Amino acid sequence: MNAQFIHTSLVRGLDGGSGYTVAGRTGGMPMAMSDVLCRLSGLPPAWSDASIEEKILCAFRTVEYAGQRVSVLSHIAPSGMDYTGRANRISHHRVMDEHAMHVSDPAALLEDESLWMREWVGAARELSGGELPARLAREDAPLHTWERVFGDAGWAASVLEVVMKSGIGVWLVVPARSKKLRLCAEMMALVPQEQRWQITFATRPIAPGSDASVKICFVDEREPELAAHNEKSEWIIQVGSGMLSRAPAGALAQRARVGIGEAMHAAAGHKPQARDLNAHVGGDVWTAPTKLSAPREREVGVVDRASDVVGAGKQNALPTPHAVIEVRRMVDTSANSGVWKWFAATAVVIAVLLWLAVRSGATL
Amino acid sequence: MPVHSALTTHPLFREPRELMERVHCPSCRVGFAPSEVLFVAEDARLVGDPVAGPTQQLRFLPTRFDVGGAALDPEGARCTRVACPRCRIEFPRAMIELPSTFISVVGAPGCGKSHLLAAMTWGLRRERARAGAFMVDTEPKLNARLHRDENILFGAPDSTELVRLAKTEIAGDALLYRTVRVKGKDETLPLPLIFTLHVGSGGEPSEGADGSSQRLSALQTIELPTNTLDIVEPAKRGASLVVLYDNAGEHFLPGADESAQPVTRHLSQSRAIVFVFDPTQDARFCAAVGMADNGGANIRQDLVLTETFARVRHHRSRHAADTLDVPLVLVLSKADAWSVGAHIDLNVEPYLPQGGLDFAALKKMDGALRPLLQRACPEFMSAVRAATSRVLIVPCSALGPRTSSVVGAGVRASDIHPQWASVALLTVLPLEVDAIANASLWT
Ligand SMILES: Nc1nc2c(ncn2[C@@H]2O[C@H](COP(=O)(O)OP(=O)(O)O)[C@@H](O)[C@H]2O)c(=O)[nH]1
Ligand SMILES: [Mg+2]
Ligand SMILES: [Zn+2]
User: Are B181 and B169 in contact (CB under 8 A)?
Assistant: First the structure.
């Protein structure tokens, strides 16, 4: 079952304390789980003139609870004043169940603002588990935000590769005012859906090296915490320098630039429709895509139709084989992925069985 | 060469200074000998420590030293920074050379701890003549979060802009807490604020890390109220370290998960506890001083106090029935809001003309506040009496009289003029705690 958990400053919390305390929690949640989520609830201080939206921490983390790792989505946002007259924040966590993970991906869920509480009204109380709609990022579109922020959408592929190889996780420094969650969601679209729950991330700095740290933090260049670290550290990465100094190349980078749809169109000798092009540059009316088309920057409608789009994507646009192979190779080299090894093993077993079958057929 | 002999024979540690026999880690509180101290590698290639974390420089027990006596890391770089052998969090090297006094600042959420700390340290950095003592950052980099607060409140004294301190986070603030992995388990520990305290009103502090090179004789410069005073070691040497903790109030509430997040373990070794009682969060106190009620935010501050001393007892393995002799300074905060109603005058601060605390004035203030508190909050005073036998009550206004009406939206920077802010800290500093005890100020 999904579960949710709200932590904010109240005169009286669910467990009695005041100040930052448990405001809401799915009934029956074990105390140990509650304690784990409390510890994920902090909001790091931001730079002095950060806007409210810039202060929000969105994170997908996995934490250990009762001997297993559970997936937790967190949305931590400033939330007016508390009873002492000081700036409050509200941390809304959702513990994901298998089914929800099957039909959604973490970045797309976090991008759906309707799922995340920004203010707590009333006394502390128990909550339901919280129904989650299916939310999937589209796999077929070019990565416009990456292109706008970094000049070349292909960087998403390069960053993904660094993240997959990194043992401790990385902080990607992004220019001021870029939309970090959007960057994250776009990058995730390069990864097969079933892999997206393996790449933990955050949109504010989280120190690497603890149980609750993530594979990639999108860190605004103005973050005060950056100053505390040597920016030459290997785990602090920046587009255009260090591990990311070489221009992106390869099938995945190409897919990031043009998307699967364009690649297919190009291969079939089609030109994209004019209306699709308008959608590219953010034309103000978004109409439901008949075939494949490019997304707009931040469009809840897209996410709402995500499952249809994915369905359509499955029929109309099989991912380009090169890009898929590249992702699989990266995932394969990634330290914590056993899935593809398992696939390979299964393939070998099937091959052997086939061979045996053929041979026994031959001897008949 | 074994490290301890290196520590005592090499010039880095030789000089006139001796090493402490035993050092307590200001973060995880473990005690260890100076010979067990780890060094922090400086070479850029030596990143990653199994306990401190993959982004931290390696911690190591040195076996090689350069001619100047500095430890060399495995790549040959000179290292001077040191870390705890257990949690591997860095602490100022001066801690192995000078005695340290640990002081915990405790109180319910929103009672004014962070403001008080910023105001009292700010005061003691500047008011050496008046206070008869002054403090400098032992290792400025390690006090970064206090600088953040001090800058907000006092950084622009002429500005009419509204300023405010953020609510102290319970987790996730990298300047307040550090998560380390001890024996394969994550532990979140507090980062303390560490100062070098110089007693006496003369002399220039040496800038930067090492305060001990500048020794002042406390005996010559400070006027003491009694001549039978048993002066503690640090005072003789003129300098000692003061280690302060600012926790989020939530950590002191009953039921806070102390085992998983041992952020209040420092209570165990604290020389004194500064308990901040916020009268404006107590409806009966507000009524007693003719203040408008705060709108129902009635926090059981007596429970916070009881819980605090329960933890002190627990850490010191003392029986619940024993009263502890840990001195308790009861700071009544936000005095700008209630001093008029309580008929106390904060304009005169309790300092002697020649510098140092005026014990008579302190005693008088204590005498004025005690009956008021007893009348308005009897259960709180009962909790106090059950907790410890040494109590001193001190008022304080971290923001000053011109700010009390505008607190909600922040206060104008130019209006901030703390009153009695450094007094509470001064009363618990190494020299004074004994002086005051002897002057029978504590009751
Ligand atoms: N009037 C007045 N308000 C204060 C004073 N010190 C703190 N406050 C207010 O009390 C609230 C809590 O202060 P803070 O230091 O953050 O409390 P903490 O949670 O104990 O650290 C803030 O909103 C301050 O504006 C003071 O000296 N006078
Ligand atoms: Mg505070
Ligand atoms: Zn330690």
Answer: no
Residues A110 and A196: beta-carbon distance below 8 Å: no
Q: Are residues B163 and B31 in the same domain?
A: no
> A194-217 pLDDT, tens per residue?
899 999 999 999 988 888 899 999
- Interface with B, mutate which of A61, A168, A210 (most B CBs under 10 A): A210
Find, among B121, B398, B346, the residue nearest to B242 by Cα.
Answer: B121
Q: With a 6 A CB cut-off, is B109 part of the ligand 1 pocket? A: yes
Closest CA to B241 of B35, B429, B29: B429
Number of the ligand 1 atom closest to the C-alpha atom of B167: 16
Residue A275 has pLDDT above 70, yes or no: no
Q: Considering only CB atoms, which chain B residues are within 8 Å of A207? A: 53, 55, 174, 178-179
Q: Which of B68, B92, B116 is the last residue of a domain?
A: B92
When mean pLDDT is compared across A211-220, A253-262, B16-25, B60-69, the lowest value belongs to: B16-25
Number of structural domains in chain B: 2
Phi, psi of B363 (to 5 degrees): -60, -40
Inter-residue contact B267 to B387 (CB < 8 Å): no
- Could you tell me which residues come within 8 angstroms of residue B14 by beta carbon, excluding any fewer than 6 positions away? B8, B69
User: Distances from the Cα of A56 to the Cαs of A10, A68, A92, B179, B380, in angstroms?
Assistant: 20, 28, 11, 22, 39
Q: Give B338 Cα–ligand 1 centroid separation in angstroms.
A: 14
List of E strands, A116-268: 125-127, 170-174, 201-202, 216-220, 236-238
Q: Are residues B178 and B255 in the same domain?
A: yes
- Asked if A139 contacts A314 with a C-beta cutoff of 8 angstroms, the reply is no
Model pLDDT for residues A127-138, shown as the tens digit of each residue: 998 888 888 877
**Whole-angstrom Cα distance, residue B399 to residue B115?**
8
Both tokens of residue A314? 């499955």
Q: For residue B152, what are the CA distances in angstroms to B109, B159, B411? A: 20, 11, 11
Could you tell me if B420 and B389 lie in one domain? yes
